[in-house]
Amino acid sequence: MHAGIIFLLVIIGSVLFHIFTPWYWTDIASNWGGMDDTITLTFWVGGGVFVAVCLFMIYCVFRYQHKEDRRAEYKPEDKKLEKILTWATTLGVCALLAPGLIIWNQYVNVPKNAIEVDVMAWQWGWQYRLPGADGKLGTTQVRNIADNNPFGINPDDPFGRDDIMVESDVINLENNRPVKILLRSVDVLHNWYVPQFRAKMDAVPGTVTFYWFEPNKVGEYEVLCAEYCGVGHYAMRGGVEVQDKADYEVWLSEQETFEQLSARYEKLNVDGNKLAKK
Amino acid sequence: MSDEYDNNKSYQAQSSEVIDGSAGSVNPDIDYVRPAEVGEQDLYHGHSFIEKWVFCQDAKVIGVQYFLTAVFTGIVGLILSWLMRLQLGFPGLAGFMTAEHYYQFVTMHGMIMVVYFLTALFLGGFGNYLIPLMVGARDMVFPYVNMLSFWMFFVAVAVLMASFFVPGGPTGAGWTLYPPQTILEGTPGSGMGILLMLISLSLFVIGFTMGGLNYMITILQARTRGMTLMRMPLTVWGIFTATVLAMLAFPALLVSAIMMTLDKVLQTSFFMPTILKAGEVLEYGGGSPILFQHLFWFFGHPEVYIVALPAFGIVSDLISVHARKNIFGYRMMVWAIVGIGGLSFFVWAHHMYVSGMNPWFGFFFATTTLIIAVPTAMKVYNWILTLWRGNIRINTVMLWCLGFIVTFVNGGITGIFLGNVSVDVPLSDTYFVIAHFHMVMGIAPLMVIMGAVYHWFPLVAGKMLHEGLGKWHFWITFLGAYSIYFPMHYLGFIGVPRRYFEMYDSPYMTSAVGMNEFISIAAFIVGAAQFILVFNIIKTLKTGKKAEQNPWKANSLEWYTSTVPPEHGNFGERLPVVHRWPYDFSVPGAKDDFIPQTTAPSEVIHTEVEKT
Most C-beta atoms within 10 A of its C-beta, which of A251, B18, B229, B309? Predict the structure, then answer.
């Protein structure tokens, strides 16, 4: 008897925990509310099935406890019941799968007006690059990376000259403008993840991966690495600052382009040579 | 030679006997069972202590050896989990705990529990002990290879444990061993540690292949007369299907281990692209890290079912026996096991939705993954429908089964979250994943293992485990484990990433400090509670109540051996002849509420048996 009661309390406790939990989603700050909605839907359907199955089990435990003088029912199969259950489950599964796939379709199709951001990861940190006036990022290669070319931009690529280098672990984004995050890594796997934006994707060395979102809440957010990348994984943090258009433009104008950076290094070199000659 | 090989049970004696000798049968024709097509195997009986207990060819001894070795690794894994929880609940309390150590413990805990504990325990342990007994064979078909299988496993465990003592310590790459970090500096144990891990895994696969061939061929070829495939206990179906999966999946692990070893030792570039490390470009180029992930999960996802399917099978038998009712929808259960096994090879990339593979794969793998929920749900329905209108003994074994249902359904439902591609995006790589897979493939199979231990201990040792201690063991484990993993899902909702040595003061994390402390304390208690079983076993072996033959009144063949515990050769002079499925419980018109598989139809002629 007590077994059934304890199981019942576990189920009631689970439901109450879910209702009153102080631990739940961080406030969403992007367009991916659909993900949250699908989770909520899955919670209702899945949670309902969990509670129903467990309550039925507990009912059986109470109702059909062992008695010496009683016999269990003998009924090896019930085709009709099995058929009903199969189709009901299939239907439920489809109902959950459909919204999931619809949102995935949005996730993999990036809007045309999205601004591209090159997120470059290494053990253990981040840096960012934005396209310049031409709206295109220059191509890159790991072997090109040097002090005067921190992103490894191909020097011959005309699109790369005006690229904007953000040599900081914080990137500013414009509010309500879609962003296409282009991820790459120079060493191991990483993952640029902001819980409030919901979205994530691994950065894989040797290739460029992407995902997109549209920030819709001004503020500062913490970036976490979400793919294990060695002993410094837990400390690999960064930041995002979502700003209104005006503030964002001001910030953008303060950043250095690849051309300016190259020029600065050239000057440094020239000055250095002069010093050496003197 | 004649005293080494037991020739008494000759082929002639078996096959000439067309009708089983149920004396005084009313109608001999209904008792007809086809004669055996092949003769009985010769068994090599050990003579010395070493042959009987160390290098032994008896599958039952090998099963116990597998079981004890796996439990040893499980205890190591348990201690590692305590150390991890110590750091997560009370950071800084253990002075020796550096990030390096933490990641090494995480990695070894994961690999030990999945491969060396659960897989070895279910297939090597229960598989070896139960398959020959349940299908009515005298032993596995290749006893010598079976012995080698265990010793290969033993060496694999020794190599794995040796990695704790090499310079740099064991690998800390995470149990998934994702390159490139696995073999680069910056990951703990990227020197000797990872090499020993790869060697140990390779040895495990080789040893396991030897055992797996045995399980498969014994089930296919060595079943006793009348034991058709559709009369096999679901335990055997579960172990059989899991073994087939293992034979197909483990090669993927083996080749990826070999390729990674080459990447490490010979600087090949199977998985290694151009890499810039500390300002220098390494001697790699052109390899694909994602290729490794595909290979790993092509093994890794079937691996989940390699653990789950035997658990499904065993729990079906336990529920049926202790509810005194036939398993509901036996054929559906068999096809669900086979279907889940087949589908499990088409879902692997649901571990990789955010891995950077072509995102269009997401549609395919989300669909296949959610399809697998249908046969799985059918199994759950059939378990609870077996309880329905049963005559349920609420003993320790049944409690573990009920605990299994609760934790398995809970973990299965959260699997639907993670399988549904876009829902996975915010939850992947967070504590939600940790909670999900511990619930569904940690706690749930563990519940089955425990239930199986309490159920079959009287057969293995001839003594009954103490019920009171068993119930304490169950309640502390179930309630404790549930309160570890249920709230942990909510850490994942907050967005807390997994594999974090420390969270610092991330704003959304500070609120969860209390929860982490609670989870850690629960983990310490649950871990400690497992020693109740150890105590129970020792106490029972010393002073326990002697078990009668077939104490649970079950039908399957393992309870109808000539001696308890069964001796080498299992069934005495004659192999049993099977006339029915093992689930004839509470048949209307029968004298007892169970009809053993060996009972001929003519002996129960007035009963309303539906399925035989």
Answer: B309
For the structural domain made of B55-232, what CATH number should be given?
1.20.210.10
Q: Say how far apart CA B544 and CA B548 lie, in whole Å.
A: 12
The residues near A265 (Cβ < 8 Å, ≥ 6 apart) are A147, A148
- Give the side-chain half-sphere CA count within 13 A for A99: 18
Domain ranges in chain B?
A: 55-232, 551-612
Q: Which residue in A55, A2, A47, A50 sits closest to A21, CA to CA?
A: A47
Q: How far apart are CA B140 and CA B612, in angstroms?
A: 26
Select from B183, B422, B475 the residue whose CB has the most chain A CBs within 10 Å, as the one to mutate to test that interface: B422
pLDDT at B101 over 90: yes
Q: How many CB atoms lie within 10 A of CB B506?
A: 18
The secondary element (H helix, E strand) that includes residue A185 is strand A179-185
Query: What distance in Å separates the CA atoms of residue A86 and residue B381, rounded to the nearest whole number?
Result: 10
Question: Which of B 325-384 lie inside 8 A of A, CB atoms?
Answer: 325-326, 328-332, 354-356, 359-360, 362-363, 366-367, 370-371, 373-374, 377-378, 380-381, 384
Residue B282 has pLDDT above 80, yes or no: yes
Q: Does the domain at residues A115-271 carry the CATH identifier 2.60.40.1120?
A: no
**Chain centroid to CA B374:** 22
Cα B576 off chain centre by: 28
Q: Where does chain A hold its CATH 2.60.40.420 domain(s)?
A: 115-271
Nearest residue in chain A measured CA to CA from B512: A23
pLDDT of residue B14: 40
Smallest Cβ–Cβ distance between B490 and the set A24, A78, A142 belongs to: A24
**Length of chain A, please?**
278
Q: How many C-alpha atoms does B412 have within 13 Å on its Cβ side?
A: 30
Which residues in chain A (137-196) have CB-CB distances under 8 A to chain B? 142-143, 145, 183, 186-189, 191, 193, 195-196
pLDDT of A197-251, one tens digit each?
999 999 999 999 999 999 999 999 999 999 999 999 999 999 999 999 999 999 9
**Full DSSP string of A113-181:** TPEEEEEEEETTEEEEEE--TTS-PPPB-GGG-BTTBTT-B-TT-GGGTTPEEE-SSEEEEETTS-EEE
Q: Measure CB to CB from residue A77 to each of B329, B427, B506 and give the nearest one.
A: B329
Phi (first) and psi of residue B561, to 5 degrees = -85, 165
The answer to ipTM > 0.90 is: yes
Rounded distance, CA B21 to CA B571, Å? 16
Distances in Å between the Cα of B57 and the Cα atoms of A224, B60, B117, B315, B569 are 53, 9, 22, 28, 11
The pair of three-digit structure tokens given for residue B261, joined into one six-digit string: 């070893």
Whether this prediction's pTM lies above 0.90 is answered by yes
Asked if B434 and B488 count as a contact pair (C-beta separation under 8 A), the reply is yes
Beta sheet of A237-243, edge-to-edge order: A170-174, A237-243, A219-225, A190-193, A202-203
What digits encode the pLDDT tens for the residues B240-269? 999 999 999 999 999 999 999 999 999 999
| Torsion on CA atoms A191, A197, A198, A200, rounded to nearest 10 | -20
Residues of B in contact with A25 (CB under 8 A): 493-495
Helix (H/G/I), strand (E/B), else coil: B42? coil
User: A169, A167, A162: which is closest to A151 by C-alpha?
Assistant: A167
